[in-house]
User: Fold this.
Amino acid sequence: MTIIRWRGAARPSPVALPELSDEAWVVISGRVHARAQFDRSTAAAGFAPRVRFESDSYDVAQALVATGYGVALVSRMTLRHWPGATWRPLVRPRLRQTIHIVRPVEDTRAPLAATLAGLLRDGARDLAD
Assistant:
């Protein structure tokens, strides 16, 4: 996960979630697992976030962050480079997301399924680096 645009963003180092306890937040609400992970993580970090806006869209959240409206946690997979936004890796806690693919092993009707699975694996490797 990545934090984007906050008062300490000029500092090039990674960020720990407790450092962001006083910030206003733009939260992704449409992804149930992402929101639950956010709520658990902030509680474990010892604060209740001041949620200023909720969105179902990572793009909307990042656009709001770029205007200075608040900070947001976004997956590196969804990160866009918006003018005025700064991103820093979140190091504590280190949040992860798991994506599962379920498909028949011998499915000849969907030849692109194996290609999609390979692309997702490649993307996951890139994000882990």
In short: Residues 13 and 88 are 7 Å apart (CA to CA). The mean pLDDT is 77. DSSP finds three helices and six strands in the chain. The beta strands are 2-4, 15-16, 24-28, 50-55, 72-74, 87-92.
